[in-house]
Amino acid sequence: MSETQVQPTLDTAWWWKALAENELLVPTCRSCSHRFFPPQAFCNNCGSQDWHGAATSGLGKIYSWVVIHRAFGPDVADEVPYAIVAVDLDDGGRLIGRYFGALARLADALPVRVKIFHKHENALLGFEAID
Amino acid sequence: MNSRRPSFLGKTAITGVGYTPFSRDSGVSVHALAVNACRAAMEDGGLKPADIDGIVTYSLLNDSVYGQSVAAGLGCQDLSYAVDLSLGGQAPCAAVTMAAMAVDAGLARNVLVFRALNGRSGKRIGSTAYESLTSEFRYPIGFDAYPQYIAIWARRFMIETGFSFSDLAHVVSVQRDYAALNDRAMQRKPLSVEDYLETPFIVDPFRKADCTIEVDGACAVLVTSLDEGRSHAQPPVVIQGSAWTTPKGSGLDHADLFSWPDWSRNCHDYLRERLWASANASPADVDFAEIYDCFSAVVPMTMEGIGLCPRGTAGDFISSGETRLTGSLPVNTHGGLLCEGYIHGMNTVTEAVLQVQGRGGARQVAKHDTCLVTSAAMMDGSALVLTRDKQG
Question: 0.90 cut: is pTM over it?
Answer without folding.
Answer: yes
